[in-house]
From TrEMBL:
InterPro entries: DUF3303
Top-level taxon of the source organism: Bacteria
Name used for this protein in its record: DUF3303 domain-containing protein
Amino acid sequence: MKFMMTFHWAPDTEQRAEAIARFQRTGGLPPDGVRLVGRWTRADLSSGFDLLETDDMKKLTEFAYQWSDLMELEITPVLDDAELGEVLGRVAK
């Protein structure tokens, strides 16, 4: 399954500095079992989102835990257009 994890940073310079340092140390990569499809960050650095793929909710939760002390996170299951088209082909009349 694919998930969009949206992140928001508070305008706290110490917290932001720690998040940047952690990102530089770790590359912001999720644990094994979660594939990072892509990451996009707003130009003003206030927020962004990761597109992740996994069938292991425990690993997804582990990744969220690694960052939830520094930013607000929201995780939403998502479908790409091809997957949505399959669903609509079956149910839309």
